[in-house]
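Let's practice the habit of predicting before peeking. Look at the sequence and jot down your guess about where helices and strands might fall. Then scroll down.
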Amino acid sequence: MNSPTSTVERRVAGRRLSRIDGVGKVTGTHVYAADFALPGMLFGKVLRSPHPHACIVGIDTTKARALSGVRTVLTAADLPAIRFGTAIKDRPVLAQGEVRFAGEAVAAVAATSLEIAEQAIDLIEVEYAPLPAVFDMEAALLPDAPLVHADWQAYQALPVFDRSGNLSGRSAMIHGDIEAGFAASHRVYQHRFSSQLVHPGYTEPRAAVASWDGNGDLIVWTNTQLPFDMKNMLAEVLDLPARKVRVIVPGIGGGFGGKLRVGVEHFAAWLARKSRRPVKLMTTSEEELLDAYPRQPTVIDLKTGVDRDGRLLARQARVVLDCGAYANSGPATVAIALQVLAGPYRTPHLAFEGLAVYTNKGATGSYRAPAGPMANFAVESQIDIIADDLGIDPLELRLRNAFREGDEGPAGEKVLGVSIEECLRKAADAIGWYDRRPAPGRGKGLACSWWLTTGGSSGVYVKVNPEGTVTLVSGAVEIGTGALTGAAQILAEELGIDLADIDVAQVDTEATPFDYGAQGSR
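Done guessing? Here is the structure:
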């Protein structure tokens, strides 16, 4: 997109200054959710299933409850039969009669120390009856595949997605006449591209401290990227009005999309409610790998037809995405993949299908441009293959097919603010594209993509303090982007004060204005 530039000389805004949270972070004094503690706090732990798919025949918590220092032991029998989820409400807080992946939460404990909580977890006896499991996303679509959710039809779900058995959501994109496009093509290329599961890899594990006040209100300190969404999600799993839930974000040590959804907050909240004490719960590295929200594995079959000059005439794709045992954002993510596959090139005939699939593996999620890298990897790899086969420079092939101002997009929309050619040429110049004589074992390449975004509301208010300082009150989460420093710089510029005279309030859904959250490159 074309972006305006300003020549106005500014005193604070736009200048490279020390971040307002920089000193605390480099000296180790910045308080993260993992550091947070309350007086009289208990420590929570979760018992997880060793089986990928099994019936829970019985759970005996007698020994765990008898252990000195244990205050609460929870199983699904102690909780309402509530299921939660993004596209489909398919996930229980604790497994209800059946586990669907190795690592699923079966029971939870709160004790006076972490060591006692760990001992108590080991004392819980669970009898399992293993069930057939499916681990391959394409095998899960076969008629005789074991069902990850035998009762899938009973779940509440967004009606926009087609569902059936292990298919948690189907999306489609059709434009033009795909058969006519392939019939008119000089050559047709077919390839399969696979991508793997990728953990977000944040430095700080997921952590939460939950406490209930005398009015029956829940307060949770957590490292979520979406405090206002978290407020609503916790209200749902605890069967509370949203006004009875308050979420505070002390600090967050990375997220990358892995801290968008409920992770440990619901366990801490339920344990705190039952024990009548504050409870802290934090994942271990092993738990992060068993039960987090990593990027979804995909398989993309891509078929493309071109004319003699390499211009795209038709493109057909089938995307299969592995949601794991619970849908989460998978059905929406596979729909995004189709959008990314459609551009940024002019293609008159398109036929795409996206399938989000249940398997007996941990749930996946929205990590760093959900679906973008997987779809772009397929498109751009095939563009290079086509260029090599036709003997056309890869840059030239991209320029021939790139969107132009006013072109019609795959959904019939008019494409505006296009600067793909300018961007590609600048990138080529920057890497010395036309001097293609790299050292042995080295190479040069380029690629391009497009991305979609949506509008999200955000609010701030400014408090002028009696001593002459100013407090910036915002619901935006500082996730490492410097967003709050930038906001403080703008405020300092507008008020004509120094950055040092501005304090930024902690994110607190009870006090700060609504914010869409740290997601989608915002």
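How did you do? DSSP finds twelve helices and 22 strands in the chain.
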